[in-house]
Amino acid sequence: MHKNISLRNAGIIAGTAAVFAFLFGIIITASIPNLANRSEASPEQSTALPLVTEQGESPFTRVAENVTPAVANISAEKTISGRFPGFEWHFEGPWNEFFRDFFKGGPRSEQRMQTLGSAFIISDDGYLVTNYHIIRNASDIIVKLTNKKEFKGDEVEIIGTDPRTDIALLKIKDGKNLPYLKFGDSDNVKVGDWAIAFGNPFHLEGTVTVGVISAKGRAGIALPEGPDFQSFLQTDAAINPGNSGGPLINIQGDVIGINTAITSPSGGNVGIGFAIPANLAKAVIEELKSEGKVTRGYLGVYLQEITEDLKDAMDLPSLEGVLISEVVDNTPASQAGIKGGDVVLEFDGTKVKDVASFRITVASTEVGKNVRIRVFRDGKEKELKVTLGEMPETVGAAPEAPEQEYELGLGVVNIDDPRGQRFGAQVKTGVIIIDIKSDTPADKAGFSVGDVIMGIGNKDIANISAYRNAIAKLEKGKPVIFHVQRGNRKLYIAVTP
User: Fold this and answer.
1) N or C: the chain end with fewer CB closer than 10 Å?
2) For the chain, where do the domains classified as CATH 2.30.42.10 start and end?
């Protein structure tokens, strides 16, 4: 039985429904923009920092304000010796030998020159970092901050240097409450991340340039100043002469690298700059601070990258690992049974990727540690145990040539040695001259740094071993012919031991 609803009750119900519908509509209407804004904001929220701050400034402004006070201008005087200091003779064409012979006997002289670079403070009591090549053989070091305050003479102490990574650690004596920078984690840096370079290019103090990380792990870069151990961050942030030693900074204001070098046909920035990664630098700096030098693990081998041709010729299963081209006698490698032709696949539980990273891994391993090495030999994998030695101070990629190599005044290395790669040899075998002692038979004969010795007398010279054997058989006072590659030319040079 249905009851009749009065008009009064019907009106109340209808009014209540209308109010409810009105309120519901307001809620829905208010929610729609929020939902739209939320979906539109998602991409923006994924960006670490806005392109423009709330104050309308670039995010780099704040980084520059925080970093610049801790960046220093560093200058140092050094003495160079030569027949024509500050001028490199490089002639091509028919007059090359004429000019070389004409000036070869000129008087030697000394000249004072000043290097200029950058540095940055890493502690409030005045420890600061720069490149070794800036202060090498230098005196009268001057450190100048952006607030114009200077420290020089006895106020600046060299704590330690490491030529193999091109790092130097200095200390401002009695430093107090100085602005300083912190190192970030360069392993977490990704290609495409912001990179901000600070320094003093061309005497222009407090310069800031911005780019991105272009690549990681760059090695085998031909640089006149080295270093031997290379695993550079590459950036297109403008780096020019004078930027060396300055910090490469991320968007959070942390140091991710030390600006070190550029590759350029003109000597100026073309968007290819290199920085020592922060994690490599931190380990070196900590040891320089505590010990004054860096102690490195040592095997005693020469290494090569594995190419497709080598893979096919040696019947290797893949391109993985690095090839040992030579084992030096009386070294940890020779004592452990490592042989030339072995392919190192794994070192201390870590897969070996390339020559550069393998060298750094070995060098970073504790001296005296027993390490397992997995190699590929004669079609099979083999595990060896080696006790790492300590890398001699005079050794780069492998032991330096013995003293007999300097009997003629020549310092030589294998062509694939990083110390020689910077000269861009046009041949694949031989030994390359990286040093010539003055007033020696080699100096008087007209050799040049960068020459490749391909033959001595009737003996072909393929590597250091062949060179040593040939030098040992030379007769004093009897001229001998050296077959040399210089640039894209071949020539013969007579030397009297």
Assistant:
1) N
2) 297-390, 403-495
Element of type H or E holding 148:
none
Residue 217: beta bridge partners?
A: none
Residue the block writes with tokens 């000036």: 103
Question: How many whole angstroms from its chain centre is CA 177?
Answer: 31
Could you give the count of Cα atoms lying within 13 Å of 101 in the half-sphere of its Cβ?
Answer: 6
Taking only the tens place, the pLDDT of each residue in 437-470 is 877 888 888 888 889 999 998 899 998 888 988 8
Burial 141-150 (b: 16+ CB within 10 A, else e): bbbbbbeeee
Q: Which uninterrupted H or E stretch holds 51? A: none
Query: Could you report the per-residue pLDDT of 188-235, keeping only the tens digit for each?
Result: 999 999 999 999 888 888 899 999 999 998 887 766 666 778 889 999
Strand partners, 208: 198
In terms of Cα–Cα distance, which of 418, 431, 444 is closest to 359?
418
Annotated active-site residue 244? The verdict is: yes
Question: Is the domain covering 297-390 a CATH 2.30.42.10 domain?
Answer: yes
Is 309 a known active-site residue? no
Q: How many Å apart are CA 235 and CA 262, to the nearest integer?
A: 10
- Which CATH architecture group holds 186-291? Beta Barrel (2.40)
Please compute, for residue 127, the number of CA atoms within 13 A of its CA located in the half-sphere on the CB side.
14
Domain with CATH 2.40.10.10 in the chain: 186-291
Catalytic residue among 162, 166, 354, 417: 166
CB proximity list for 404: less than 8 A, separation 6 or greater: 468, 471, 472
Sign of CA dihedral 72, 77, 82, 88: positive
Q: Is the domain covering 403-495 a CATH 2.30.42.10 domain?
A: yes
6 is catalytic: no
Tokens of 3: 């009851």
> What type of residue is 459?
K
- Cα 114 to Cα 414: distance, rounded to the nearest angstrom: 33
What does pTM read for this prediction?
Answer: 0.62
Of 186, 214, 231, 244, the active-site residue reads 244
Are 95 and 46 spatial neighbours (Cβ–Cβ below 8 Å)? Answer: no
* 3-class SS of residue 218: strand
